[in-house]
Amino acid sequence: MNSGFCMVSSLKHQEVQSRFFDPSWLQMQPHVPMSFVWPKECVVDANEEFQAPMVDLGGFLRGDEDATHVAVKLIRKACSTHGFFQVFNHGVDPLLIAQAYQQMDAFFKLPIDRKVSIRKTPGSVWGYSGAHADRFSSKLPWKETLSFPFHDDNNTLDPVVSTFFNSTLGQDFQQAGVVFQKYCESMKELGMKLLELLAISLGVDRLHYKELFEDGCSVMRCNFYPSCQEPSLALGTGPHCDPTSLTILHQDQVGGLDVFADNTWQTVPPRARALVVNIGDTFTVQALSNGRYKSCLHRAVVNKYKERRSLAFFLCPKEDKVVRAPEDIVRRDGTKQYPDFTWSNLLEFTQNYYRADEATLHNFTKWLLSSKQQTL
């Protein structure tokens, strides 16, 4: 066998044979299988450090106007050029972050047949994925992911994250559900505060985006990047811009996040107790800036000697809410850059028709306009 996949037959409710990413098997191979090899232009080394602004949120969270002004200035500059910044004094308990890593590690150490028993189904965002092998056959990412939903729901006694873990992995992962429920609640609270800063930076009411996002279903993703025998050929995640609105990332101390800025790949080193924040395509074109702010191309590289993990929280608007730039910004700019859409439109496009990359937004716009034409 040289495809880079193992054969697993013991799946829930059925007996089938399919291809699945098995890092324990792959790490024993002397060479990276061709399905994991990326073009040379995608794996060019990053030889310098990315100077992402470090934004202190402590004063802003306390209501200090001078500190808020400083934070807004740094964020405005970052988002106008590349869309990446790091935040500290963000209010998220470091012990909670550590507990989230412990629970994530426990999941990824499970036998492969247990993990694929909760694999993503076609068109779904939720579940386990090994190298996206269920969707693609080339330029595969050297990673495993576990994705699950989060939204505020005051009408149920069972929190959505806890329900996900209980229903898919059972009692063994009940504590994981509790930890990640708390983690997602902290990320959502932080994300809504960051929305206020972004709104202020654009000169609109600080609560302008609250209604669009407060009832949205966000995506929580645990990423595991195994060590790789030939890291110069493979990537943990290929070059892409996030199609979502706001990403809040915690990366472990191994490092591996790269950003493409000033026409070169640059590393984003881990900072103790800091979170990396970047805006995605949805913010870039509509909900925030009418194209004023940038969603930056980024990737994850792999390490020859160490595994790497990260926790990514993607803040998303409510699926059926129309995403459009504030009228004040459109009036000031004199033109509207992109057509109205809903988050569910973009999600459908990226899950069913397109593999996210640096051209996602451009191709989504063409697809959306073509779809609308066909319904006329």
Automatic annotation (TrEMBL):
Q: Which GO terms describe its molecular function?
A: gibberellin 20-oxidase activity; metal ion binding
Q: Which residues form the Fe2OG dioxygenase domain?
A: 216-317
Name any Gene Ontology BP term. Answer: gibberellin biosynthetic process
Keywords associated with the record: Iron, Metal-binding, Oxidoreductase
Pathway terms, separated by semicolons:
Plant hormone biosynthesis; gibberellin biosynthesis; Hormone biosynthesis
Its name, as the record gives it, is Fe2OG dioxygenase domain-containing protein
**Stretch forming the signal peptide:** none
Reported cofactor(s): L-ascorbate
In the record, the note on similarity to other proteins reads:
Belongs to the iron/ascorbate-dependent oxidoreductase family. GA20OX subfamily.
Looking up PROSITE patterns in the UniProt record yields: FE2OG_OXY
Q: Which reaction does it catalyse?
A: gibberellin A12 + 2 2-oxoglutarate + 3 O2 + H(+) = gibberellin A9 + 2 succinate + 3 CO2 + 2 H2O
Superkingdom, according to UniProt?
A: Eukaryota
